[in-house]
């Protein structure tokens, strides 16, 4: 078994993992760190999910990195734009040199005597076990089961003659033109999926258990465009970020006080 000693170990090379690595490069340049990533590329959620219309459900000015201005005027941006943004941040900060791809982490345990985290992983290319010992561990792996998204068993579904598709495993060339479609659920995935499919299908229905409260907002914010056009990018980003965080905080307080 190969054993590696690290100051810091990051699990996951998605938005959070890359953010952590970029901050370490800037703030702790003398610290030795490694990122373990199960997949073959970075981006996490924004690379894995490829269903129509995938986008952020948080505004990109507060969801994006503080150290890298989000220059797109779209408040809720498409998945491919976010994926490119994460790649740019990793490239600019020379993070790729610290990533070990296709590593599946099986467990992590704290060794009180050694004052170290002991993380066991498998190199899925060679099948060889690896062990990492680190002073500090950052778990940035998200909450998805990357092998198999949650899939309930629907009684009688074997009698259904149509196609059942899970958004996490969306077929690359799925043609739904002229089809009758039911989308089960009313969360962020459904809210982005349905409008993107509506112009091609014969009919589409959201089947929901609990209604969602939805604001209708423009895709591109007019004030954002003005600030980006008239101010330096870093200042425009700071103002937009402050504004969107303030609005989100106001909405949270208002929703609690007057639900």
What would a concise description of this structure say?
The protein is an alpha/beta fold. The chain contains seven helices and eight strands, in the order βαβαααβββββαβαα.
Give the SSE layout.
Elements: E1 2-11, H1 15-27, E2 33-37, H2 45-48, H3 60-63, H4 79-92, E3 99-101, E4 103-111, E5 116-123, E6 129-139, E7 180-184, H5 188-197, E8 203-207, H6 222-230, H7 233-257
Helix pairs in contact: 6-7
Mean pLDDT: 92
The CATH superfamily name of the largest domain is FAD/NAD(P)-binding domain
Rg over CA atoms: 21 Å
Count of separate DSSP helical elements: 7
CATH class of the largest domain: Alpha Beta
Q: Which spans have pLDDT < 50 for at least 5 consecutive residues?
A: none
**Sheet having the most strands:** 6 strands, mixed
**Gap between N and C termini, in Å?**
56 Å
Strand content: 15-25%
Return the string of H and E elements: EHEHHHEEEEEHEHH
CATH topology of the largest domain: FAD/NAD(P)-binding domain
Helical content (DSSP H or I, runs of 4+): 25-40%
Count the domains: 3
Shape, per Cα inertia axes? globular
Q: Assign the structural class, choosing from mainly alpha, mainly beta, alpha/beta, alpha+beta, or little secondary structure.
A: alpha/beta
Give the tally of β-strands: 8
Tell me the CATH architecture of the largest domain.
3-Layer(bba) Sandwich
Strand order of the largest sheet: 3-2-1-6-5-4
How would you portray this structure in words?
By secondary structure, the protein is an alpha/beta fold. It folds into three domains: 2-139, FAD/NAD(P)-binding domain; 157-207, no CATH class; 222-257. Helices cover 31% and strands 22% of the residues. It is built from seven helices and eight strands, in the order E-H-E-H-H-H-E-E-E-E-E-H-E-H-H. The chain has helices spanning 15-27, 45-48, 60-63, 79-92, 188-197, 222-230, 233-257, and strands at residues 2-11, 33-37, 99-101, 103-111, 116-123, 129-139, 180-184, 203-207. A six-stranded mixed β-sheet has the order 3-2-1-6-5-4. A two-stranded parallel sheet has the order 7-8. Helix 6 (222-230) packs antiparallel against helix 7 (233-257). The chain starts with a strand and ends with a helix.
């Amino acid at each position: 078994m190969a054993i590696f000693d690290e100051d810091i170990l990051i699990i996951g090379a998605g938005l959070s993992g890359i953010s952590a690595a970029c901050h370490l490069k800037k703030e702790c340049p003398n610290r030795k760190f490694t990122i373990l990533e199960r997949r073959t590329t970075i981006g996490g959620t924004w690379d894995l999910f490829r269903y129509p219309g995938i986008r952020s459900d948080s505004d990109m000015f507060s969801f994006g990195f503080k150290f890298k201005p989000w220059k797109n005027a779209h408040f809720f941006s498409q998945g491919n734009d976010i994926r490119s943004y994460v790649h740019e941040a990793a490239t600019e900060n020379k993070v790729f040199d610290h990533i070990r791809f296709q590593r599946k982490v099986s467990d992590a345990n704290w060794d009180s005597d050694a004052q170290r985290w002991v993380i066991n992983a498998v190199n899925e290319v060679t099948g060889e076990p690896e062990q990492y010992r680190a002073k500090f561990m950052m778990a940035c792996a998200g909450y998805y089961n990357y092998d198999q998204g949650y899939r309930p068993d629907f009684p009688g579904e074997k009698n259904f003659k149509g196609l059942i598709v899970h958004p996490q495993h969306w077929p690359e060339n799925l043609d739904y033109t002229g089809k009758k479609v039911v989308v089960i659920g009313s969360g962020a995935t459904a809210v982005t999926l349905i409008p993107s499919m509506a112009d091609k299908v014969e009919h589409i229905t959201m089947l929901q258990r609990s209604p969602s409260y939805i604001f209708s907002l423009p895709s591109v914010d007019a004030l954002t465009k003005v600030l980006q056009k008239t101010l330096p990018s870093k200042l425009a980003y700071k103002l937009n970020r402050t504004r969107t965080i303030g609005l989100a905080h106001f909405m949270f307080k208002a929703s609690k006080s007057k639900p």
